[in-house]
Amino acid sequence: MTELISLRVNGEDRSIIVDTRTTLLDALRDRLGVTSPKKGCDHGQCGACTVLLDGRRAIICLAFAVAHDGAEITTAEGLAEGDALHPIQQAFVEMDALQCGYCTPGQVCSAVGMLAEAERGIPSHVSDDLIGPIELNDDEIRERMSGNLCRCGAYVNIVAAIRRVAGAESGS
Question: What is the β-pairing status of strands 72-74 and 2-9?
Answer without folding.
Answer: parallel
